[in-house]
């Protein structure tokens, strides 16, 4: 990798109200707005950063969490390089739902090798005093579900937010380096071609 | 099969088996007939064909080979057949794999005995073909793999059950849905009743949600039919791509895939590209000059007073609406006039009648409110739907317009009202419940009404218009996106082509605009203005779509000059929020309406969207007579009253039930 900037797409998934938008805004604009609206539809922000000598543009996608919007949310999973599974430590249900979010992502993002795909787990709102999910439980879940890195974050206090996103970048770069030896980057084009040709010839 | 020129193959799947009982009494000695199923368009008639495999390939050999070689792997998973295989596909393949091993074992015992497979002519007797038009129902069952049972309208004909050992039944049903309407039988959800009167394009959207019912989740596979139709826009893609570097193309991969998937979710764009029946292809239409229009002053309290008779009936309503359309209302009037605009108060009601109505509606409101208020903690523990609604509402109320004085701070009474009205609406329409976005629609109403009961009933009226946006299938959203596409294409073919070339023809970037009627795009007070103007129903129906056109018209130059791609367009549009000038947007929207109205050769689909066919302007137009029978497509946006009645009936149904049984029983869905 030379001085070239690579574009990485990461997506924040998790129940409504766990703080996905707040995490994104804290990381990209370093602001926290208690009056933030709940997300309707899909939004994304870009952030340039350097990780271990790699220049990266991180494209962070944020989605509406309600089940009703699933079919209009899931197409945007495509092409993600990393998935940030998010729950809120003061909401045990959001923790319990993480498995579903992971499944939904793997299915709709069309992940070829789920066990190798980089996930990072974020337990947000650690600033609140009444926790419903302990750090141990969260770590255990991460361990049992593919050894995902776990970060306890607070978008409000700016705790661990950058660390979590940077970890996501590292995980992606690590997987890319692994696969680069095996597959030439042109695979993407080859994948798309058969479909285009059939549409021309049929 | 490729040499088949007179047929158009819409779908094809190999590895479809018939389990034929050999009939010699031995239960284990099932004959397995392997073959392929195809959906073929033959001169407009869609046929389902089942053909057993050629004799040269003996399925029993293949099954046995599968145990220790890779041949079954190739046979089942040829890369052309499955460009996408997500986790589910892999899972189902694993179960297929298990099954193959099991069957191959069985087969061996078979061939050791006397049940060896017969050959070609024996298998040919399993071939069958029928027209989709003759199909009465398809029953879908699962048993490790899925199998389909076809029932024809001619009841005497019975067809063998088809076992999709290699998967593909979901895709087959998807393709079938494009030719026929499939709906679940009320008696048995596994049984899909078939009718071909309507091409149920909208159904494919539902598949995404319904797939789980059958456990057959292969939706991501693109079928050839869509690919063919989509080919149109791809041509322009290549042209644009030619100007971009190869690297640029690579970076565009995810957006293209996202767009492809959106295309499956929002069906109908294919229609846009090829018009429903093929004869109304829109070529370049000269729209003529866009007229200059002026906005007016808001309706004043004096004007409003002049429009009332002594008993409080509202006079000369069309004129009143015209003034409101042109300039909106002064803020003081909103509390009164919105109730009429939304249809909560009839225009011709007297003051007395309205007071009586209010009394009745107040009772009704509090009866419904009591229903959820009186649910005990214990009941709530056993009512997950209510619990979910409640938790979602609590979360969203705390994230709605919190900078507005009416809702700011902690423990603001405005927040409690917002919460209570939304909870009561759940009781009013439990099937819909609470969907994100509804708090955005309620907030301005409550702000203006400053009264729980009146805000609730105005919200009910507004929701009658917006209901479809929030329903399970989001039909309202799909319809609007398709309609908006038609308008944009008419207004500026070049811009439309650009959007398509950037995989943005599904107009996903307008999602938030349409879902909550620009609530997040404009300042709070501009939202009030826009909504009251929209509620006049002037100058045509679906003004909000022209508002979209108006905004995009102002942005298209930048979008094209900057060569924005899929992501950039989405970002750009999202970031227009709070930067729009409502009066300018409305001025242009009206001008666009007049421009389209003045156009002679207006495509019928566009007149339908804007409701030009129903008024006198085009009534004398011979063109509209010719095309009148084409008015088969449902009204683009059912009138508020239509939906209102539906929603009302629903609400009353709930009420009646609950009043008979006391509190809380309306939770039974």
Automatic annotation (TrEMBL), chain A:
GO molecular function: G protein activity; GTP binding
An example Gene Ontology biological process: protein transport
UniProt record similarity statement: Belongs to the small GTPase superfamily. Rab family.
Broad class of where this protein is predominantly found: membrane
Protein name listed in UniProt: small monomeric GTPase
InterPro entries, A to Z: P-loop_NTPase, Rab9, Small_GTP-bd, Small_GTPase
Organism: Muraenolepis orangiensis (Patagonian moray cod)
Matching Pfam families: Ras
Family annotation (PROSITE patterns): RAB, RAS, RHO
Membrane protein topology class: Lipid-anchor
Transmembrane portions of the chain: none
Keyword Cell membrane: yes
Enzyme class name: hydrolase
Any one GO CC term of the record: cytosol
Cofactor list: Mg(2+)
Catalytic activity, reaction form: GTP + H2O = GDP + phosphate + H(+)
Localization terms from the record: Cell membrane; Cytoplasmic vesicle, Phagosome membrane
PANTHER family: RAB FAMILY (PTHR47981), RAS-RELATED PROTEIN RAB-9A (PTHR47981:SF9)
EC number from the UniProt entry: 3.6.5.2
Keywords linked to the UniProt accession: Cell membrane, Cytoplasmic vesicle, GTP-binding, Hydrolase, Lipoprotein, Membrane, Nucleotide-binding, Phosphoprotein, Prenylation, Protein transport, Transport
From TrEMBL, chain B:
GO molecular function, one term: GTPase activator activity
Highest taxon above the source species: Eukaryota
Family annotation (PROSITE patterns): TBC_RABGAP
One cellular component (GO) term of this entry: cytoplasm
Compositional bias annotation for Polar residues: 657-669
Pfam families: PH_RBD, RabGAP-TBC
Keywords, alphabetical: Acetylation, Cytoplasm, GTPase activation, Phosphoprotein
Record keyword Phosphoprotein present: yes
Cell compartment(s), UniProt: Cytoplasm
Residue ranges of domain Rab-GAP TBC in the record: 328-538
Major localisation: cytoplasm
Chain intervals for the UniProt region annotation (Disordered): 620-669
InterPro entries: Rab-GAP-TBC_dom, Rab-GAP_TBC_sf, SGSM1/2_RBD
Signal sequence, start to end: none
Complexes and interactors: Interacts with non-phosphorylated form of RAB8A; phosphorylation of RAB8A at 'Thr-72' disrupts this interaction. Interacts with ARMC12.
PANTHER family, alphabetized: TBC1 DOMAIN FAMILY MEMBER 15, TBC1 DOMAIN FAMILY MEMBER GTPASE-ACTIVATING PROTEIN
Task of the protein: Acts as a GTPase activating protein for RAB7A. Does not act on RAB4, RAB5 or RAB6.
Protein name per UniProt: TBC1 domain family member 15
Origin species: Muraenolepis orangiensis
């Amino acid at each position: 990798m030379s001085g070239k900037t690579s574009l990485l797409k990461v997506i924040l998934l998790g129940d409504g109200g766990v703080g996905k938008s707040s995490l994104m805004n804290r990381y990209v604009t370093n602001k926290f707005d208690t009056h933030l609206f709940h997300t309707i539809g899909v939004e994304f922000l870009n952030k340039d950063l350097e990780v271990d000598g790699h220049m990266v543009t991180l494209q962070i996608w944020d989605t509406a969490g309600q089940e009703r919007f699933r079919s209009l949310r899931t197409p945007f999973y495509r092409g993600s390089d990393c998935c940030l599974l998010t729950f809120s430590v003061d909401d045990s249900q959001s923790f319990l739902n993480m498995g579903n979010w992971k499944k939904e992502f793997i299915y709709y993002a069309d992940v070829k090798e789920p066990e190798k795909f980089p996930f990072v787990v974020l337990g947000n709102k650690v600033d609140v005093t009444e926790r419903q999910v302990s750090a141990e439980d969260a770590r255990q879940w991460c361990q049992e579900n593919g050894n995902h890195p776990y970060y306890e974050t607070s978008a409000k206090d700016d705790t661990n937010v950058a660390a979590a996103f940077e970890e996501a970048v590292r995980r992606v770069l690590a997987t890319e380096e692994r696969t680069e030896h095996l597959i030439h980057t042109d695979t993407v084009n080859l994948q798309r071609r058969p479909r285009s040709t059939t549409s021309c010839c049929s | 099969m490729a040499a088949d020129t007179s047929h158009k193959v819409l779908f094809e799947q190999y590895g479809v088996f018939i389990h034929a009982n050999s009939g010699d009494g031995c239960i284990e000695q099932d004959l397995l007939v392997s073959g392929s199923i195809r959906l073929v368009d033959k001169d407009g008639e869609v046929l389902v064909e089942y053909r057993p495999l050629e004799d040269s390939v003996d399925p029993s050999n293949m099954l046995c080979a599968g145990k220790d070689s890779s041949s079954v792997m190739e046979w089942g998973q040829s890369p052309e057949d499955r460009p996408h295989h997500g986790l589910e596909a892999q899972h189902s393949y694993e179960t297929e794999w298990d099954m193959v091993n099991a069957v191959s074992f069985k087969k061996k015992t078979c061939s050791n005995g006397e049940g060896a497979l017969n050959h070609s002519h024996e298998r040919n007797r399993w071939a069958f073909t029928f027209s989709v038009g003759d199909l009465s129902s398809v029953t879908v069952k699962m048993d490790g793999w899925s199998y389909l049972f076809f029932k024809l309208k001619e009841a005497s004909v019975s067809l063998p059950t088809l076992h999709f050992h290699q998967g593909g039944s979901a895709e087959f049903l998807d393709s079938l849905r494009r030719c026929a309407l499939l709906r679940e039988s009320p008696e048995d959800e596994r049984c899909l009743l078939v009718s071909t009167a309507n091409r149920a394009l909208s159904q494919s959207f539902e598949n995404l949600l319904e797939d789980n019912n059958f456990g057959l989740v292969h939706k991501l596979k693109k079928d050839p039919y869509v690919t063919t139709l989509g080919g149109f826009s791809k041509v322009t893609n290549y042209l644009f791509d030619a100007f971009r570097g190869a690297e640029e193309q690579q970076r565009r991969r995810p957006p293209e895939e996202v767009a492809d998937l959106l295309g499956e979710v929002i069906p109908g764009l294919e229609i846009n590209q090829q018009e429903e029946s093929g004869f109304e292809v829109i070529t370049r239409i000269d729209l003529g000059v866009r007229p200059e229009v002026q906005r007016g002053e808001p309706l004043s309290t004096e004007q409003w007073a002049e429009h009332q008779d002594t008993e409080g009936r509202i006079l000369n309503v069309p004129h009143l609406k015209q003034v409101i359309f042109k300039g909106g209302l002064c803020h003081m009037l909103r509390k009164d006039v919105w109730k009429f605009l939304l249809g909560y108060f009839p225009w011709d009601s007297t003051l007395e009648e309205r007071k009586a109505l209010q009394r009745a509606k107040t009772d009704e409101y509090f009866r419904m409110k009591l229903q959820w208020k009186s649910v005990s903690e214990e009941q709530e523990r056993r009512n997950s739907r209510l619990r979910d609604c409640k938790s979602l509402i609590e979360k969203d109320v705390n994230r709605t317009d919190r900078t507005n004085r009416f809702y700011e701070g902690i423990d603001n009474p405005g927040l409690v009202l917002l919460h209570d009205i939304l909870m009561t609406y759940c009781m009013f329409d439990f099937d819909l419940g609470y969907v994100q976005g509804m708090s955005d629609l309620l907030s301005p109403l409550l702000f203006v009404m400053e009264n729980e009961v009146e805000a609730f009933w105005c919200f009910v009226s507004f929701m009658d218009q917006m209901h479809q946006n929030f329903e399970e299938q989001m039909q309202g959203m799909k319809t609007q996106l398709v309609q908006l596409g038609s308008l944009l294409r008419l207004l500026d073919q070049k811009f439309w082509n650009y959007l398509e070339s950037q995989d943005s023809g599904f107009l996903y970037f307008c999602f938030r605009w349409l879902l909550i009627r620009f609530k997040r795009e404009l300042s709070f007070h501009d939202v009030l203005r826009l909504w009251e103007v929209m509620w006049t129903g002037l100058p045509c129906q679906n003004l909000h779509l022209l508002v979209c056109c108006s905004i995009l018209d102002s942005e298209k130059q930048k979008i094209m000059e900057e060569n924005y791609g899929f992501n950039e367009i989405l970002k750009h549009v999202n970031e227009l929020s709070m930067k729009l000038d409502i009066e300018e947007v409305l001025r242009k929207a009206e001008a666009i309406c007049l421009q389209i109205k003045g156009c002679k050769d207006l495509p019928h689909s566009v007149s339908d969207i804007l409701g030009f066919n129903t008024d006198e302007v085009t009534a004398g137009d011979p063109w509209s007579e010719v095309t009148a029978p084409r008015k088969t497509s449902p009204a683009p946006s059912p009138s508020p009253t239509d939906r209102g009645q539906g929603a009302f009936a629903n609400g009353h149904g709930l009420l009646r039930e609950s009043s008979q049984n006391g509190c809380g029983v309306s939770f039974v869905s």
